[in-house]
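re: ur question from yesterday

yeah so i grabbed the chain u mentioned. its 532 aa long if i counted rite. heres the sequnce exactly as i have it in my notes:
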Amino acid sequence: MLSALLLAGCRGLEVSEPALRVSAEGETVAGAWVDEEEGVAAFRGLPFAAPPVGELRWRPPAPIEPRSGVQPAVDFGPRCPQTDFNVRYARAIAHDFGSEETLVPDLAPTSEDCLYLNVWTSNLGSSELQPVMVWIHGGSNTYGGADEVPYDGANLARRGVVVVTFNYRLGILGFLAHPALTAESPNRSSGNYGLLDQIAALEWVRGNIAAFGSDPERVTLFGSSGGGADVLYLMASPLSEGLFHRAIAQSGAPPADQRTLASQEFRGLRLGELLEIGDVESPPEALRAVPVEKLLEISSAHLNEEFDCAPVTDGWALPDLAGRTFAAGKQRNVPLLIGTNADEWTSIGRYPHQLSEAGLRGWLRSFWDGWAEQAERIYPLAEASSVEAMAQRWQTDHWFTCPAAFVARSMAAVSSDAFLYRFSRRLPTAGGESLGAYHGAEVAYVFDNLAAESWVPRQELDQGLADAMASYWVQFATTGDPNRDGLPEWPPFGAGTGQYLEIGDEITVGSGLREEACRLWERRLAERLDLR
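ran it thru and got these structure tokens back, copy pasting raw so excuse formatting
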């Protein structure tokens, strides 16, 4: 959903010698050294699709027109249009830790011309190609960008992989379904433009990454929050066939989604009403003529109430609901590493302290309906002081822990292994006890970029944990199995054993993660999606 967002502090680097010139997508691009002594270079702001503006707004990504001459690749491209919600999210976390909120910078520049990617490599010119890890940023498919400082790929590149991060269309520009847009599509589809951008970025990787020293046959797709969910959507999409060979989904799983093309088209018609263009004879042209500022204003004002931005079951990019696809074992047959954080909802929900026991009990009964009695046993409300904690526990289970366990269990239907984890590191500092292992907390550890989040207090233990997590992730990208010498063994999930890796103050193996709660959750899912 969300993650701490910042500009990387490396804009304006000067282009270096011809050794850093690479041919990609018909262009010659010139990057810059991040660490010349260790041979780590970065190429920033590489276009992977034509600017989705004007007539290309709400159309599948189109090929770029190669530019002549040597193109500097030292600055990040702009982020896709969005509000500053993620900046405010990160500042709230800084506030909880007692840090200066100004440590979190303002929102980076945005533009509809935003389809750019970035590459970090330490393997230029080598004949021995390295694996590539392709990152999908989080932010509920509505916020964020590939230039956030925790996503800097230099430290992972030092470990023997090439790293790619990219932007994709967000919010209403990335996920608007509308009958008129569907009608003009040769695939009778609308609403998945952001997902199609992700596929276009993977196609760019397949065609160009060898020039940066990486193997296009060893692509690992990884992401967190909305990006983690998108990894799983891409596992469910026939359009991603052959584009990646391993998958990592952090704190994001879509099995309970019920977005059909018809339901999202209804929401698109509502947008037309709010924009006062619902009766225009040519809605596509009228929609494309609306200034982006107005689109953001209207869609943001009605977000969650009338608009939610995520991939749509359109019969083309996504033939069926993701939950049904995984339940039927029809997902992409690639090794999967998946997990969540122990306290996802502390930073997302921010429940008011006046939440009452009666209010939460009524909420549980309304949601669970016929399963309410079992739910109340799992989330006991004997003491009023436990209400907020129980609400957070339920939301973490419902949106994160149980969907991840369901997806891991579904991998038993294919031949590839699944590896499940729970990140539970709670910082024993001011604010750390209330935040716990909050949503997005694991990202800086995975990238080995703890210093990037200067507003989060760290201890000596944390760097060791970052070393371990980055090593597990890189090993998985290399072999499809995270296990390597020097680290605690990480057993496959396994349909019968349910084993997972607990990543906290210590790294240990557990089994049956939130088993009772997740059994109930899966019964409810089967009822909602008619899986029986």
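noticed a couple things. The first helix runs from residue 85 to 96. also The chain has one domain: 18-354+441-489.
anyway ttyl
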